[in-house]
Amino acid sequence: MTLAPPSDQLTVDASRRRRSRRGSGRPAGSAFARSPIGYLFVSPYALLTIAFGIIPSLYAVVLAFTNADGGFAGFDNFTKVVGDFRFWPAVLHVTTYLLIWLLALVVFVVGLALVVHAVSVRWVSATLRFVYYLPGALAGASSVLLWLFVLDPTASPVSGLLSALGFDSFVQVIQPGHLPVIFAIIAFWTGAGGWIIIMYGALNNISTEVIEAARIDGANAVQIALRIQLPMLRKWVAYMGVMSLAAGTQLFVEPQLLSQASNAVVPNDYSLNQLAYQYAFQQNDFNGAAAISLILLVVALLLSWVFVTRGGLFEKE
Amino acid sequence: MVGIHTLVRSRRKASTVAVMCAATALLTLAGCGGQGSSANGPHGFPEAKQEASSTITVWVDADRQAAAKAFQAANPDTKIKVVTYDGSANGSNSFRTKVQLFDRAGSGWPDVVFSSQNNDAAWASQKSGGKQAFAAVLDKGLVPKDTLSNFTGGSLNPCTVDGRVYCLRNDLAQAVLWYDKSLLEQFGYAVPTTWEEYQALGEKVAKEHPGYIIGTAGDAWTPEVFMWASKCQANDVTGPKSLSVKTDSTECKRAASMLDALRNNGTVPVVSVFTPEFLKKYSGKVLMMPGPAWYAGAIFNNPQSLNVPAGRLGVAAPLPWKGEDEAATGNVGGGTWFVSSHSKNLKAAEKFVQFVTTADDYQVDVAPGYPAYAPAAQKWIAKQEASKYYATPLQPVVSAASRVWDGWGYPTFSQEAIWAKTMTPGITGGKSIVDLLPTWQKAIENQAKVNGYVVK
After folding, report:
1. Does residue B355 share a domain with residue B281?
2. Which residues from chain B sit within 8 angstroms of residue A175, using beta carbons?
3. How many C-alpha atoms does B305 have within 13 Å on its Cβ side?
4. How many CB atoms are located within 10 Å of the residue A85 CB?
5. Helix (H, G, I), strand (E, B), or coil: what is residue B310?
6. Which positions carry the signal peptide feature in this UniProt record (chain B) (predicted)?
7. Which residues contact A208 (CB under 8 A, 6 or more apart)?
8. Which range is most confident: A149-153, B22-26, B179-183?
9. Closest Cα to residue B56, out of B341, B352, B356?
10. Residues B76, B126 within the same domain
11. A68 in B contact zone (CB under 8 Å)
């Protein structure tokens, strides 16, 4: 699971608001128009996005509605993939995984960030933040490889825990029913640290005056967390939800590597993205693969929309 | 020295043929032939314009780098570029993945590819998305008939689609019965001669020497060792796009119930031979093990694995079922070499695949696996026997090579993956294989259908 670098949009918005309230800021749009250098700065990003994001997406749309010979196929590719015996199990797998993972992410990331933020000893807090972030520094695939060892009772450093849970062999650990939890744990372990740091930053962004006022009014730490900090973190939680959702629906590396490592006991068509991969490269059906990708895109967009509107991500008060 | 003679002769013949085909290709391009792109070339497929001294690109896995090296040493004049890839191993399917991308791009194909899988000819022999089939037809003049006929009987089955040969087999992986001669003698047991005796022995071992095992059933190739050898009709490829599956037959059930019985008494555990768990529990306790020829080097005579000392490991021919006069056996892998039909230097590509599959320089002197090319296999066996590692003669391995049952086919999808995905979790969870046979049938049918097969 890759983490997008934290967007500064929220903080920028906040400071701009503060400035405009004071009446010292210029309207943002005209400032941008007057400095063409801005275009230069965004141009590399824009060009790369067009070349490797937008054009391939458009190509996928074309592929999804055409057949192998390039003729218009209507919704044939979609009915075909939805009717595939592997499609609905894959949907179920990804949904279960997403539910477990997103829930764990929201609860534990916010909880841990609040705890770290409440730690007043500076070096303890700094050490904790560093430790949380550490697993995220491992690239996706290598962290999965690490987990292959952790999950194998004969090689695992936590084999005691695994055998206490009744697992004596790797195959027992990776029984189909356990997989969503396993993938959620792996994804949490690799990705949550970065989010804890971001949430910590967000907590720092809450004005000390507000917290102090609450404290003077007699609020204790728990009350401050629940009544002040949490509501002010709403946008950040929504942001985390949107980003994680996009990454989570694309579940691929974890099951793919686990599939190879277990000699296919973990199926190579476990997730929707893997199924698309199977379509493209096992069945040589790029059109079917594009149809699955498009379905994924639409679903992810719809869910993101829910997060954006419910979380008030783009509200300007 | 017969081998070397044929080699020289066939090379000369191949070169004449290649010159002729190059000339034909030129004519075709000049418009004299008037052939369209779908028309066949002199060797049964449309050829690219040949460039006699161009460099050929060769894809090998890490183990086969030695083959490329041996070729370079023996043929310094032929220019080859060696690219190492994963050999499509462990279901990575990278050979097919890459070729499909090259097909879309319309260029970039390697000239020669080694694959560790047996299901590549099934797709490489077929046109895909209107594009010419990747694999060159080898038995219409490209590879000399003499060479082809010297391959062990049945060994080119994974390469044969609709009667045409599309690849050369590197090594064979016929299943035999490996056993620990010293342990057997110590316990006073005889080597079983039928599967029924094998099962009876398992029941005896469970009572008299619990903890010792006579096989394993936890790997993805379990169906290939037990079901295939029992002539179970789970994978009968009847045409390039048709398949017949029947897992409720007597042949399937007898093997399944034997495995169930032996798993329940602990003598054939559901554990993969390549796990630390296997080594921890069963090192020194493997009484016997039906498995592919390569188990000898990969498991028994391997310091990282069971590390059985010299003079103990014996081998017996594959077992028949009671009442059958000749035993059938299964096969677990064995690499294949493909020549690209897009190659600009078919002559060099053919020379390469012929060298690596037949020349003593590689197959006898270097290759770790049992050569598919029969003359090389005899010499390879002699070399293995000379090592004094084995407690018995190795002729059972040779006789097993041509007994691989041909009713088990080679479709584009992997039977191993299906077994691992649908059966292994169930068996690990304690279900019986006999009860799971219908599930297996359904899974094979489903997989076959999405891969474009008509299932009967």
Report:
1. no
2. 425, 428-429
3. 14
4. 14
5. coil
6. 1-30
7. none
8. B179-183
9. B352
10. yes
11. yes
DSSP line for B91-105: GT-HHHHHHHHHHHH
Overall number of domains in chain B: 2
Q: Which of B421, B445, B441, B423 is nearest to B432 (CA)?
A: B423
Distance (Å) from the C-alpha of residue A270 to the closest C-alpha of chain B? 10
Q: Do B424 and A154 touch (CB under 8 A)?
A: no
- Closest in A176, A265, A284 to B100, CB measured: A284
**pLDDT (tens digit, 9 = 90+) per residue, B406-417?**
999 999 998 998
Instruction: Quote the percentage of chain A above a pLDDT of 70.
Output: 88
Same domain, B215 and B250: yes
Please indicate, yes or no, whether residues B355 and B326 belong to a single structural domain of this protein: no
Contact A152 B275 (CB under 8 A): yes
Measured in angstroms, the CA of A104 and the nearest CA of chain B are apart by: 27
**Using CB atoms, which residue from B280, B420, B452 is nearest to A265?**
B420
| DSSP string for residues in B121-154 | HHHHTS-BTTBPPSBPP-TTTTS-HHHHHTBPTT
Pick from B270, B276, B452: which is nearest to A155 by CB? B276
Residues with Cβ within 8 Å of B239's Cβ and at least 6 positions away in sequence, in order, are B162
Closest residue of B to A266, CA-based?
Answer: B421
B145 and B204 fall within a common domain: no
Residue A120: is its pLDDT beyond 50? yes
Pairing of β B168-169 and β B171-172: unpaired
**CA nearest B424 in A: which residue?**
A265
**What CA–CA distance (Å, rounded) separates A269 from A81?**
13
| B389 domain residue, yes or no | no
Confirm or reject contact between A176 and chain B (CB < 8 A). yes
Structural domains for chain A: 85-311 (1.10.3720.10)
Mutate to test the interface with B, among A86, A284, A286 (most CBs of B within 10 A): A284
Residue range of the domain that includes B306: 175-330+395-455
List residues bridging with B56 in a β-sheet: B80
CATH number for the domain harbouring residue B110 = 3.40.190.10
Task: Measure in Å the smallest separation between the Cα of A77 and chain B Cα atoms.
Answer: 13
Residue A153 forms contact with B (CB below 8 Å): yes
Residue B164 lies in a domain: yes
> Other C-beta atoms within 10 Å of B451: how many?
19
CA A178 vs CA A92, A140, A239, B108, B361: distances in Å: 13, 20, 28, 42, 50
Considering the domain architecture, whether residues B37 and B98 belong to the same structural domain is answered as yes
Does the residue B418 lie in any domain? yes
pLDDT in tens, B327-368: 999 999 889 999 999 999 999 999 999 999 999 999 999 998
Helices (H) and strands (E) in chain A — how many of each? 18, 0
Distances in Å between the Cα of A11 and the Cα atoms of A35, A251, A315 are 22, 30, 13
Split at pLDDT 50, 70, 90, the class of A34 is low
Residue B253 located in a structural domain: yes
Distance CA B362, CA B172 (A): 15
Q: Are B340 and B322 found together in one domain?
A: no
Domain identity same for B58 and B107: yes
